[in-house]
Amino acid sequence: MRIYQVGGSVRDALLGRPVNDRDWVVVGATPKQMIGAGYRPVGADFPVFLHPETQEEFALARTERKTSAGYHGFVFHTDPGVTLEEDLARRDFTVNAMAQDADGQLIDPHGGQADLAARRFRHVSDAFAEDPVRILRLARFMARFTDFSVAPETLDLCRHMVAAGEVDALVPERVWQELSRGLMEAQPSRMFETLRACGALRRLLPEVHALWGVPQRADYHPEVDTGVHLMMVLDASARLDAPLPARFACLMHDLGKGTTPADILPRHIGHEQRSVDLARRVCDRLKVPNDCRELGLLVAGEHGNIHACLSFGAAALVRLLERCDALRKPQRFELALLACEADARGRLGMEDRVYAQREHLLRALHAAHGVDAGAVAALHQGKPQAIRDAIHEARIRAVADQCKVA
Predict the structure, then answer these.
(1) According to the model, what pLDDT value does residue 76 have?
(2) How many helices (H) and strands (E) does the chain have?
(3) HD domain: which residues (predicted)?
(4) pLDDT in tens, 199-223
(5) Which residues contact residue 46 at a Cβ distance below 8 angstroms, ignoring those fewer than 6 apart?
(6) For the residues of 66-113, what is the DSSP string, one character each?
(7) Residue 137 known to bind ligand
(8) Engineering a disulfide at 61: which of 16, 82, 348, 374 sits with its beta carbon 3.0 to 4.6 angstroms away?
């Protein structure tokens, strides 16, 4: 039995990056031997075992064979005769196809170290084309490793995979898993630019793909192109260290601009409601979790009003808070404001602008929260509509006083 550290942990150590999780490959062993040594089996598709002390994953060396479309269509083969080199040959990129033995000796049969030095993602073999998830992983890695490029031959292979329909076989849950992880990387725009470059974005997120080439008013958007703006917004959300729901809301906020009638461009009248409708379609298709879905729909529909709130009177501010359900869900509202701040900063030359709307609306929310709804309701017992109207008016008065607006 020989044990090797493999994959991302080897890559990251060579790059001088933190190593959080380590993966191991075991050569020359059987499942029975692993269990006998105290390892606990956990792999459903192929033999993976947890170390009895560290709980790290140890996988038996394996090969694989494509049997049908998509990423589920594989048959895995493991036995003590499978070599380390055969196991490494099935991996996606050369920088992930390196191993290290117990003495620290590097095993690099595919030139991964050279590609690390060149800051380049290059596929190990044409077997890369058998797994469409690898396109998503490439895009996600591009968002994480912001100084890397894609080898031209690898990008060409991704284009061929898209043309062959491999991406269409991906299940929604896996698409969402990779997209959500990519959104949380250092420069999420690079994920979408990579998907767009190989044609996968048009298949996976046609609503997002449609934004490139759509003009906007230059006085509001010096960058003009809606797709360029969206990429700037996503990167602004990363600089603001926004959590996933806010970053997803940024992705959804302007989808309606891709369906603006040509005769009113570069204005985008009514794009908010169109954005809500398209965002709902994306969420349904990808089975997006509720926290991301709810915030995405909220920001899509209200970001224009949030941006304009500094000109609102007290009544309009209260109506905005109530539409956003901010009084019941203040934390979600704060995330909406964070997404809107990223939107405001995702414009050419405005990356460091102060977003006064955030403080203004939080002050209004604090004032509205200060209204004693119970005391107001006690004055209108048995009259639900009168209670609602009285609470609403009390909130308007409180916001007018706190925010110094009419």
Answers:
(1) 60
(2) 19, 11
(3) 226-327
(4) 999 999 999 999 999 999 998 899 9
(5) 59, 60, 62, 76, 78
(6) E-SSSSS-EEEEE-TT--HHHHHHTSSBGGGS-EE-TT--EE-TT-HH
(7) yes
(8) 82
Q: Between vectors from CA 167 to CA 152 and to CA 257, what angle results, nearest 5°?
A: 90
The residues with which 150 forms a beta bridge, in sequence order, are 121
pLDDT at 75 over 70: no
Res. 64 pLDDT band, cuts 50 70 90? low
Any binding-site annotation on 23? yes
Token pair listed for 111:
């030139």
Query: How far is the CA of 333 from the CAs of 138, 289, 316, 323, 328, in angstroms?
Result: 33, 17, 16, 11, 9
In whole angstroms, give the CA distance from residue 380 to residue 367: 22
Whether 286 contacts 172, CB under 8 Å: yes
Determine whether the annotation assigns residue 21 to a binding site. yes
Give yes or no for residue 71 having a pLDDT over 70.
no
* Closest by CA position to 250, among listed 205, 210, 280, 295: 295
Q: Which residues pair with residue 24 across a beta bridge?
A: 5, 58
Q: Contact at 8 Å (CB) between 150 and 215?
A: no
Q: pLDDT at position 380, please? A: 79
Tokens of 364: 């209004």
Q: Which residue has the higher pLDDT, 308 or 46?
A: 308
* pLDDT of 66 higher than 60: no
Q: CA 197 → CA 152, 155, 175, distances in Å?
A: 11, 8, 17
Residue 87, annotated as binding a ligand: no
Q: Which residue(s) pair with 26 in the sheet?
A: 3, 60
Predicted local distance difference test score (pLDDT) of residue 65? 59
- H helix or E strand, kind and range, residue 248: helix 244-252
Task: Please tell me whether 11 is known to bind a ligand.
Answer: yes
Give phi and psi for 50, each to the nearest 5: -95, 135
Angle (CA) 194-195-200 rounded to 5° is 150
Instruction: Report domain extents, the chain.
Output: 1-115
As assigned by CATH, the class of the 1-115 domain is: alpha beta
> Which pair of structure tokens corresponds to residue 157?
């292979």
pTM higher than the cut 0.85: yes
